[in-house]
UniProtKB/TrEMBL annotation:
Keywords: 4Fe-4S, Iron, Iron-sulfur, Metal-binding
Lineage: Bacteria, Bacillati, Actinomycetota, Actinomycetes, Kitasatosporales
Descriptive protein name: Nitrite reductase
GO biological process per UniProt: respiratory electron transport chain
The keyword Calcium is assigned to this record: no
């Protein structure tokens, strides 16, 4: 066959094909596959809240060995660097494959049987609660878990542990947006699907580094631009998407609410509000209108460090657009004024009538894979399944009936994740179970976090790699990756998607569901946790959410397989789901109105002075994810971004790669300089995926938004100094007796920042 001349249809064959063939091409004729009996398992990425569709490639032995993009309508064949490499963690040599136990932190870990690890854990739970009360034991979940498992975290804490102290790492991500959404709309989710971005005339992106944190979402941004939409980006850094914007507002971090109040001030003054929409559909407009009167562009210019003319330009572009949208992420949410920052964007969209239409709306980009679903069904300290309030007697009775307990047995609301750490320091909480989180890297003010965890009398952690937090525990339970179990996640659109099991877990590994159910059985609550697996849990979750705003009752695994995803609320088996909210102008408050909230700007918690005159802000980079426990073990991602750096403006006088000591009131780290004009001269930026001593969160302040209790990661006072040598990047922890994985386990001492340009004027290596 390889020697035959095969006619080519010039209407089908690409240009040059004939020449290539006639020159003796056909290289594929000699290829031989080294894998046989391959299967493609449809699923979704385990990382961010976009939830791109993918196929995991499974060989004849039933092992995941590769990935293919999937033509799902979320991502349409696109995957980012993390998605392409995600499959490599499934059969990674660092996987935990047996429980680890030590009775004292001074002892090394040893591998033990499941029975010994479970018995020791139950023994310590019973001892601590007997000696110090039920609430002396706490539990922390995670928003990268399937929704079935987040449901179990909340139920296990309240029914098996019978403690009020349960929260999750989504507290560090989405709770400011959630608080604002519920105040204004009575519902906690984005108002529009991603597809609506393609129909907008003005796209406002606030505090969201789309190109690095949500790369696949960029296709929607470019699609809007191709239609002629105006792009406005508000961010102290000139991110990849900001470089292409029509308007980039490089405001001072911590001043967002002042800026958006001023934008709305101009819109009011120039008569660009939709008064008919406001009169018919809102409350609180008079108070908002009065509040923004105090924020003329001149005042915003002084507070935010941007030209007054730019405030006017943004107002006119957004206010005059026939259809406009506002999307934001952690950049405006990680503040002591996080809820209020989000409310000012809601005020802007509502005042201009940009809600409930294709191309006109509002949304929040979730950072974790299940950042939306992870907060919906009960692992948050003040919520029960279906977003019910744990303080509402009727809601308590409804869930108690489903769980088969008395309402009086349900504990009251607990405290937030950071507050729980402070309680550990005070020894109010003496024991803890952590599931799918790594607070030693992800929580602010590392010294406080380490002190709190060190004071725990007992600490158990669920994970599939030995994270920095797990390495400090007494017991570590080895659990499955996302590819070794099935379950659902809800993405940033509130679209519920189905993850499918692609391979059996390694011998010795159990699902999180099995571990929680077995612990519950040994604690005497096994009858309430008689689940064989995710499907049983999801059926109970559906019933527990029925009749709520977050209604999953009409969502089934079979429907998800057929449709590729359904957007809640979905109250019935024939209901199509609700991709777009407010199409009838009604909110989810009992009166059907959007409850606008007046906002006054206040400065950040960490004050500037002569010793700390600059601003530190933090965030993600494209190659890594959150605490890096997964991505810092994947060779291609480590090669792309092996270590953290500090972005500094050329006016600060540093050369590229020069050691810079970054100092706050809580600690310091020495990092290589990445000199770039893409950051404000009075700011520095450090990515946060690495542990102490190069942890960005050794530096950040543990001040919290009073309503959402989210930490103020995005702004604190800092100074920078010259130093002699950069701090070494430690290798990720490995299980006892395991050889270091050479591709990623060597400590990193390379003093140079990343090779890829991070913005305009970035210094070159060499």
């Amino acid at each position: 066959m390889s020697g035959e001349h095969v006619p080519l249809d010039p209407s089908v064959a690409p240009l040059g094909t004939r020449e290539f063939r006639d020159a003796g091409g056909l290289p594929a004729a000699a290829w031989r596959a080294d894998q046989t009996e391959q299967t493609l398992v449809p699923t979704h990425c385990c990382f961010c809240g976009i939830q791109c569709g993918m196929y995991l490639r499974v060989d004849g032995r039933g092992k995941v060995f590769g990935v293919e993009p999937r033509n799902h309508d979320i991502n349409r064949m696109r995957l980012c660097p993390k998605g392409i490499n995600a499959y490599q963690q499934v059969n990674h040599p660092d996987r935990l494959t047996a429980p680890l136990l030590r009775r004292d932190r001074k002892q090394p870990f040893r591998e033990v049987s499941w029975d010994e690890a479970l018995e020791f854990t139950v023994e310590q739970i019973n001892r601590i609660q007997r000696e110090h009360g039920r609430d002396a034991f706490g539990m922390l979940g995670g928003a990268s878990l399937f929704s079935e498992k987040t449901y179990l975290v909340g139920k296990f804490a309240r029914v098996a542990l019978k403690t009020r102290h349960v929260d999750y790492n989504g507290r560090l991500c989405m709770v400011s947006a959630a608080g604002a959404n519920k105040l204004a709309f009575g519902i906690d989710r984005a108002a529009n699907p991603f597809a609506d971005i393609l129909q907008t005339d003005c796209l406002l992106i606030v505090g969201a580094n789309v190109g690095e944190c949500f790369p696949v979402l960029t296709q929607y941004v470019w699609g809007a631009r191709d239609r002629g939409a105006t792009l406005i980006v508000v961010d102290p850094r000139q991110t990849a998407v900001a470089r292409t914007a029509d308007i980039h507002v490089a405001l001072k971090s911590g001043t967002d609410s002042a800026f958006f109040n001023a934008v709305l001030h101009v819109i009011v003054e120039e008569g660009l509000t939709d008064e008919a929409f406001l009169a018919a559909n809102t409350t609180g407009w008079a108070e908002v209108k009065a509040a923004v009167k105090a924020y003329p562009p001149s005042r915003a210019a002084e507070i935010c460090g941007v030209p007054a003319e730019q405030v006017v330009e943004v107002a006119r572009s957004f206010g005059r657009a026939r259809r406009a949208m506002g999307w934001h992420a952690r950049g405006i949410e990680h503040h002591t004024q996080g809820v209020e920052n989000c409310l000012t964007v809601i005020n802007l969209c509502t005042a201009t009538g940009n809600l409930g239409r294709p191309g006109a709306g509002y949304g929040t980009l979730t950072g974790q894979g299940n950042g939306q679903g992870g907060r919906e069904h009960g692992q948050k300290s003040d919520l029960l399944p279906g977003g019910r309030s744990i303080n509402d007697p009727a809601h308590r009775r409804q869930i108690a009936a489903i769980w088969g307990i008395e309402e009086s047995e349900l504990p009251p609301a607990g405290t937030s994740m950071m507050e729980m750490v402070w309680q550990m320091q005070r020894q109010e909480i003496r024991g803890l179970i952590g599931v799918c989180n790594n607070p030693f890297v992800s929580l602010p003010n590392y010294a406080v976090v380490k002190d709190g965890y060190d004071k725990l009398e007992f600490h158990a952690q669920f994970d599939f790699f030995l994270s920095e937090t797990a390495a400090n525990a007494h017991v570590v339970f080895p659990v499955t990756t996302w590819a070794e179990d099935e379950g659902v996640m809800a993405n940033a659109e509130a679209r519920v998607v189905k993850h499918n099991k692609a391979q059996e877990p390694p011998e010795g590994v159990r699902t999180d569901t099995w571990v929680m159910c077995e612990l519950a059985r040994r604690l005497g609550a096994g009858g309430k946790f008689a689940f064989e697996g995710s499907r049983d849990v999801f059926d109970e979750l559906r019933r527990a959410s029925a009749g709520t705003v977050i209604d999953y009752y009409g969502i089934t695994y079979d429907r998800l397989e057929r449709t590729g995803g359904l957007v809640w609320p979905c109250p019935g088996l024939e209901h199509p789901g609700t991709p777009r909210l407010f199409e009838d102008g009604r909110s989810y408050h009992p009166d059907g109105k959007i409850h606008l909230q007046a906002v006054e700007w206040h400065p950040p918690a960490d004050p500037y002075d002569d010793d700390f005159p600059m601003t530190l802000t933090t965030g993600r980079t494209v190659a890594h994810f959150l605490s890096g426990n997964q991505t810092r073990r994947l060779g291609a991602l480590v090669e792309q971004t092996p270590r953290p750096w500090v972005e500094v403006h050329p006016s600060q006088g540093f050369r590229n790669g020069e050691p810079v000591r970054v100092v706050t009131r809580r600690g310091s780290a020495v990092l290589p300089a990445l000199v770039t004009e893409a950051i404000r001269p009075d700011h520095v930026f450090v990515p946060y995926h690495w542990p102490y001593p190069v942890a960005a969160n050794e530096l950040t302040v543990d001040a919290l938004d009073p309503r959402s209790k989210i930490p103020e990661y995005k702004v604190c006072a800092v100074r920078i100094e010259r130093a002699r040598a950069v701090d070494e990047v430690p290798a990720p922890p490995t299980p006892p007796g395991r050889e270091a994985y050479p591709e990623t386990q060597a400590p990193r001492t390379d003093p140079l920042p990343p090779t890829s340009s991070q913005g305009v004027g970035t210094g070159e290596r060499g």
